[in-house]
Amino acid sequence: MVNGYKMKGLMLVSVLMATAALSACGNNSNNESNTAAAANAAATTEASTEPTATESPAADTADKSDPLVVYLNDFDDIVKPMFEEKTGYKLEIVSGNGAEIASRIEAEKGNPHWDVVWMDSMPTIDQMGKNGQLLDSWAPGNLDGLTDFAEGLVPANNTYFPTGEHAASVIVYNTKAFDANSAPKTWDDLLDAKFKGAVGMADPAVAAPAYPFVAWFFQSEGMDKGKSYFDSLLKNDVHVYPKNPNVAKALTDGEIKAAALQESNAYTLKNAGEPVDIIWPAAGAPASVRVAAIQKESKHLDAAKAFVEFLLDPATQQALIDKGDESYFEPSVKGVNAKADRAADAKLVVAEAGWAGEHEGEIKQWFADKAVK
To answer: Are 68 and 300 in contact (CB under 8 A)?
Structure first.
């Protein structure tokens, strides 16, 4: 494959078209789960999740036996039993990658079927708050337990709350191809001609962490320099795959020799004994922030608020780290221990949510245009 990005251009464009309407700026986002396709999700909904009124709720107005409906893109296997056992509320989960969830939310915009959205798509959810789709001006009872980093990510009107941050990409290399001296160590190293055709990354229009990764470059360097960087990376024949697991497989299969890879995928490879090593660039790894938000017309407000507080409970975040599939992340609350083998000097940097959300459509369209050329 000379350039995997070109081969996936049509898919990227179609995802953009399906999700661009999330805000006036045309925003969407993504992740790693693989469930129902976005088109089917937009066209079909569960009868049990149908809202019955449209007034702004002051308290629960639904039957207490009705489940709380949560749209998410990870941890669906362990969150339901944990939440139900802890609170007594019933939980119904709709899972999918970020593009699927974003498309479904947009399709239901006039008649939402969800109560809480929880995924690592902070720019998209920030725009939903600005568009009036989210409950605001409510503070969880345990909000003061946030770390300093996470506290700085909470918007002034409290429309969403961070539940953890992970590296959207770290540098991973195949130790059969490079050693510690010859492997790329910085983001600029990936542009070196000696790595031409050897590097892979995930598609920013499909994989939820991939957009926060590219957004940090565009914000920190400016739009023109951001375009210049990724244009140079594409000209260096970077391989672009739909999701991070595809990147990981290409790395271990030898199709590529180095990658910008999401951290849970990177550590999973290393823990499985694959011939890879991980580098945290000194400049920092762009972070993808997982946030939770409540739909403003929810008829299950008590349960929805309980769910957000459940996610901000140190015991919950510790369980997600100890048992979850996407367990490599920096917790958003104090008193939680990250994975013992996660780099002690791991440095995360993050694009400002409002900026990243406002420019999401423009940046993704730029990548889409590059893909079809």
So the answer is: yes
- Beta-sheet pairing, 161-167 with 91-95: unpaired
User: What 3-state class would DSSP assign to 91?
Assistant: strand
d(CA 364, CA 139): 33
Helix (H, G, I), strand (E, B) or coil at 161: strand
Please report, rounded to a whole number, the percentage of residues in the chain having pLDDT higher than 90: 75
Which amino acid belongs to residue 27? N
- 228 Cβ neighbours under 8 A, 6+ residues apart: none
Cα dihedral sign for 208, 144, 82, 40? negative
Per residue in 218-245, pLDDT (tens digit) is: 999 999 999 999 999 999 999 999 899 9
- What is the C-alpha to C-alpha distance for residues 248 and 348, in angstroms, rounded to an integer? 21
Q: What's the rounded Cα separation, in Å, for the pair 331 and 335?
A: 9
Q: Is the Cα dihedral 247, 248, 254, 256 positive or negative?
A: positive
Give the torsion through C-alpha atoms of 288, 190, 218, 332, to 10 deg: 20
Q: Per DSSP, what are the bridge partners of residue 277?
A: 173
- Segment holding 370, helix H or strand E: helix 360-372
Residues 6+ apart with CB under 8 A from 44: none
Provide the 8-state DSSP code for 182.
T
Specify the pLDDT at position 345. 83
User: What phi-psi label fits residue 370: left (phi over 0), alpha (psi between -120 and 50 degrees) or beta?
Assistant: alpha
360 contacts 124 by C-beta, under 8 angstroms: yes
If you write DSSP's letter for every residue of 228-271 in order, what string do you get? HHHHHHHHTT-EEESSHHHHHHHHHHTS-SEEEE-HHHHHHHHH
In DSSP terms, 91 is beta-bridged to 68
Contacts of 222 (CB under 8 A, 6+ apart): none
Which residues neighbour 14 within 8 Å (Cβ) at sequence distance 6 or greater?
none
Residue 61, SS3 per DSSP: coil
Residue 338 and residue 136: Cα distance in Å, rounded?
30
Which pLDDT tens digit goes with each residue over 263-299?
999 999 999 999 999 999 999 999 999 999 999 999 9
